[in-house]
Amino acid sequence: MNYFITLIKRNWLFFIIMTAVLIFMNILQTPQKSTGEPILSEFISHIITIALINVLMAVSLNLVNGFTGQLSLGHGGFMCIGAYSASMITKIILPASGNAGWLVFILALIIGGITSGLIGYLIGLPTLRLKGDYLAIVTLGFSEVIRSIMVISDDIANVLNSIGLVSISNVIKEIGGPRGITGIDERSILPVVLIIVAIGIIMMRNLIYSSFGRAFQSISEDEIASETMGINTTKYKTMAFSISAFWAGVGGGLLAHKLLFISPNNFTFLKSIEYLIYVYAGGIGSISGSILSAMGLTCVLEFTRTLNLDEWRFVFYALLLIVLMLKKPAGLMGNKEFRFMIPREYR
Amino acid sequence: MGYKYLLVISLFAFLLSCGTGRVDEKNHMPQQKPEKAGKAVITIGVVAPITGQTATFGKSTREGVILAFEQIENKITLDGKEYKINVVFADDQGSPEAAVSAYNKLITHDKVLAIIGTVQSNCSLAGAPLAQKHKVPMISTASTNPKVTQTGDFIFRACFIDPFQGKVMAKYAIENLKLKTAAVIFDNANDYSKGLAEVFKKTYEELGGKVVSYQPFPGEDKTKDFSPLLTQIKSAKPELIFAPCYYQAAAQIAIQAKKLGLAVPILGGDGFDSPKLVEVGQKDVEGLTFSNHYSKDTPSTQVKQFVADYEKKFNSTPDALAVLSYDASKILIDALKRAGKPDSEAIKKALTETKDLEVVSGKITFDAERNPIKSAAILQIKNGKQVYITTVNP
Amino acid sequence: MKKNEKMVWLAIGVSFTILYILKYGFQGFLQQLVNGLQLGSLYALIALGYTMVYGIIKLINFAHGDLFMFGAYISAFVGAYLAGRGLIGLAFIPAMLLSMIVTAVLGMSIEKVAYKPLRNKPRLSVLITALGVSLFLENFFALPAEKVFFPFNKIVFGPNMLSFPKLIDDRIFNFAGISISMVKSIDFFVAILLMIILELIVKKTRIGKAMRAVSFNREAAYLMGIDVNFIIMVTFGIGTSLASAAGTLYALTFCCLDNPFMGIWPGMKAFIAAVLGGIGNIPGAMLGGFLMGIIETYASSINPQLGDVSAFSLLIIVLIFKPAGLMGKFEIEKV
User: Fold this and answer.
1) Which of A138, A277, A318 sits opposite C139 (nearest CB)?
2) What is the pLDDT, as a whole number, of residue B4?
3) ipTM higher than 0.90?
4) What is the fold of C24-321?
């Protein structure tokens, strides 16, 4: 109980803002009398949902790349694990669950996250002893291997079938090889995503301002020095890595239940690079920066769809990115935070 | 820190202002306001791969649709009231993920009444659930995978389905070519290709043939080098290769097979139908044989009239995709007329009742799974031209 | 590597080879080796550019794959012009040389505009700029000409497939059941030739010496009177021209250019090849490239879908056992 009181004390502003936003959003989403259309049309809420998922992904990647200073390029792979496990669960269990649908969905997200976190831990243990660019490549390699395993799932199912494990092979067949899973139930509606993303951000922020977070930051400053100070660098690095993977998995689950369709091609290294861009454009070591850049860049990219720019959209996006990095090499926010993002005692 | 708050606020302001549908009239992105007085507008959405690997499909689709709607001068009279028809195109880039975005934009932003498209089965499979969910009737132009229309009762198609196409080619191989051993090479990332390969294998073996090599490859965009597969196929010594892919992979397979000294006939499906096949493959694609939805040499007045109109407008010969999208538009216009009002439920009902509608690629009647029943033409590449060989009836 | 460790790897390799031969026959094995060498020579050429740029400014140049694409397109245009005048046969050589020069100019200007201003800034911001440049090149050249206003509509490539002119009348030679086409051998020998030239430049010329000095210690090289900016620019030029040569060979092999996004996957694979060999190390990149090509070919002949998995698994295994790649030196960090 005490814990909850501290939690609320530390984050009261956040909770109030969240409630206000939720109520506000509810008003926006109810159809207006004059036009019969809600102010926040389905098109906009779709985009905001996607942007929020990107925010979660960017913040979780920032935990590893920014705060712990380990260059990881494998975020798409963790997202892939989360997306696949969550949508497999909802696909198999949801039709039979009746009223408990939302519970199953939340559980599926958590299981997706845990699977992803676990795999993140297993990958992190051997690879995190590598440094700099080599670490980046190995994480990238792992994420591609994860994706490729999804691609060959048909063959895996066939092999299992020939050994006699028919039931498991039938489940694996559902993964659908390179064709992916279609017909996923739509569950990632805006309020749900908003709440989950907010919880994710609060938890990661609190982690960063805890003693663990200071350990992460000391590793990113100077690994050898922090080791000599008695910090178990391997432990903290794998910890940051698996927590980041957990949230990436949750983000993947959310995305799958928004796009209603996933295939291994959604999770190539280009996906990881997309998130890398958000993190660095926002500023490494700044949660506010990640939120701002993921939100801003996604919205710029998606809303320009309506401006009839067609193919020019990505050209402008690329130019924006180059100019941004040339003008502000440390990212939008550098390593600063919005004041309200910082717990009171650190302000 | 003040200016950063300002940044956030302005970002959100931008976010909200952008999305309120405030778009120029001239940009062909109208907000449909059916209740308002004045000229009523019906918005029809078209999804096609306008860019990407299969861009020639998109070009043909676009032209077919434009021709069909221009012939009725972009307006239609329903129940004594004149409606202007506005056609909105969306690009699926030939990828399912982009297809979802494209369908989403058409349905939720442009508020279309019905959707024509899209071409590829994998993209239609990704988009169809959205159309079904929002109860927007959708007529796929060339998605031959059976699963597409099984998504729900709002999904129709203007082409035949894979089981039929696979059967036709297997029969043709056994009965006309009299070749008893085959190798199958297909794109496992594509429902179209996989479906065709499976049906071909099944039928071919039922008819007494033998599939000696069955090779899936993971996606056309990533597989460029087919020589490892073809080397394997060569050592299995088949008498023919069945390669139900799109034109680009087909050209690569033909070229690389020649380079490995593998000189056996290559058969395929309607995905071969593109002028690019000959452009890329040149001499190497001579003799490629494939099933298609129509041939411009078919003796029929409908076909002659269409080919003449199309050539006059676009200065090029129509391929099967132009025909199918033209037909899909015709089917939709016919259904609209019979429905008598711009209402999706009524259009769906009218579409279901379509019977013996004469279109370019044959007579259309939908079966219980909303698939048209029609015949297939078999074509071959000779001297860089598609030559009509025979028609196979269901 | 320790001697017994080497033996273990050798034993694994040999046993895989024997298993493969038992399953698919010796002929199949050799034919796949030929296929693999061709693919490998393309990877090696691209990997060389990656490795040179990395060696000198420690930047993973994500735009390298797109420069490969650019080179392929330029050579396609030059090739079409030459083929239009009835010049075939050796016409691919001028096409290749011209595209190498044009691409090198583009590479150098990218360096000047997008990378140089960030040279003393956080290293990772250059990485993001490189990503931005890559996105820009892909999407800009993919603009369809009719959607672009005047000066640019002449230079964009458009999103559609472009067929590459048949510059070589491809002949097939048969040796004991193994088919080697003309293009395959050209790929291989041109790649080897370019690698030898590169090796000579780096080892025997003054510029090569300066390059090695800059990559070893930029500050010290500067103090020794080496024009560091010029040397970095030259390195970019050479690296991109190699990518462009690979682009030409790639287009020659596959007879078509998909779209301006075609550089992504070959670029990625070549990058992995460079890391595999030890990034920053020129012979390492060659070795890595060939190894990648061969292993990918064998894996995809067993099951075509194994191609990617095998490449990435190989990378992971090598890096876990040898964290600096096959030929790279592992530097011990001193405090």
Assistant:
1) A318
2) 45
3) no
4) ABC transporter involved in vitamin B12 uptake, BtuC (1.10.3470)
